[in-house]
């Protein structure tokens, strides 16, 4: 988007609920892109439960962020699933696959940065 991409966001320990989703994704990333794109911005998520909480719905509405209508349980249609597949293949192809959470985090960040646009 906008000729670039964000850094890979890795949630620290704990479950991702609606509040964390709002605070760690919607406010710092989605709102920023909405501001840059203007009214033509259309947001796409994957219908995960944390994306459909009252908090997330209210935040999107208050920021005038339009959400793309999306079929539930349709991962084959979601472009991000191809990204996760790519990252998984790259991790599996490593000579020394990550064995700790820290190594996994670093490996994912490296592969994300090296992924072609």
Would you write up a description of this structure?
InterPro entries: RNaseH_sf, Tc1-like_DDE_dom. It comes from Trichonephila clavipes. Residues 43-94 form the Tc1-like transposase DDE domain. Strands 1-2 form a two-stranded parallel sheet. The longest helix has 20 residues, at 18-37. The chain has four helices and two strands; from the N terminus they run αβαβαα. The chain is mainly alpha-helical. It has helices at 18-37, 54-62, 79-92, 101-114; strands at 42-43, 66-67. The protein is globular. Helix content is 49%, strand content 3%. The mean pLDDT is 87.
Topology at a glance:
Elements: H1 18-37, E1 42-43, H2 54-62, E2 66-67, H3 79-92, H4 101-114
Parallel strand pairs: 1-2
Helix pairs in contact: 1-2
């Amino acid at each position: 988007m906008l000729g670039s991409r964000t850094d890979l966001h890795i949630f620290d320990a704990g479950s991702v609920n609606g509040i964390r989703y709002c605070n760690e994704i919607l406010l710092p990333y989605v709102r920023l892109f909405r501001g840059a794109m203007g009214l033509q911005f259309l947001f796409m998520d994957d219908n995960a439960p944390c994306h459909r909480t009252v908090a997330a719905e209210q935040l999107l509405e208050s920021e005038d962020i339009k959400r793309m209508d999306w079929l539930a349980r349709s991962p084959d249609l979601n472009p991000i699933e191809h990204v996760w597949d790519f990252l998984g293949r790259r991790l599996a192809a490593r000579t020394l696959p990550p064995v700790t959470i820290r190594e996994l985090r670093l490996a994912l960040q490296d592969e994300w940065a090296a992924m072609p646009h």
